[in-house]
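User: I'm new to structure prediction. If I give you an amino acid sequence, what do you actually give back? Let's try with this one:
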Amino acid sequence: MTLRVSMIVRNEEHRHLLKAMDCIMEMGAYAYVTDDASDDDTAGICQDYGATVRTNERPKFWEHEGKARQEHLEWMDQFCQEGDWILALDGDETISDPDDLANVIHNAEMMKSTAISLRLYEFWTETQYRVDGLWFGNSTPRLYKWQPGGQINDRPMGCGSEPTYVQQASRFNQDRCRLLHWGYVRPEDRERKHRAYSTRLGGHGHNTTHVDSIITEPMLRTY
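Assistant: Good question. You get back a string of structure tokens that encode the predicted 3D arrangement of the chain. For your 223 residues, that looks like this:
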């Protein structure tokens, strides 16, 4: 079983990148990173961890997320083979039990599944995650078997991290390994995300109520 991590990053040096790269190392995975023209040492940190890195000459992700992800997916095609497992990860995300991921994948293969659902936990502090509104209870098939020629949804924003074939895949639902998102922990990042999503296409996923909830008082639970 070969596990590869697919990641697009920009200016993550002083955020949660080290935590994400440590997690990838613990999983024993090969990381393939597109650096979206960072102004800091994001690319260098990824390379220090042994990742294969390509760099955009100018930022593309916020221009059109779908096209940026499609370019990244097509670049990965030269490294991946059918049967490889791909984990779509952001630079501010980790897996709760990286040392158990191989067992989860083994169980999925025994069930003839080609995608694995990960429950998403949105952290608002280093120890507390959010449970109100749409912030909790979501599962996402971020772990899937590679197929050549995959396509990303052609959307300027909110296109998803995985190819469209993953949505139709036979999915293995589990709760042993969870996706932990740290991108809202810092107040300045919450404010930045709220501004960005509010000014793009009526909000992330076109759900302005959900976008506005970024800056409302959250209901938190200790992890």
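You can read the tokens as a compact description of the fold. Here is one thing that stands out. Residues 3-126+137-186 form a domain with the Spore Coat Polysaccharide Biosynthesis Protein SpsA; Chain A fold (CATH 3.90.550.10).
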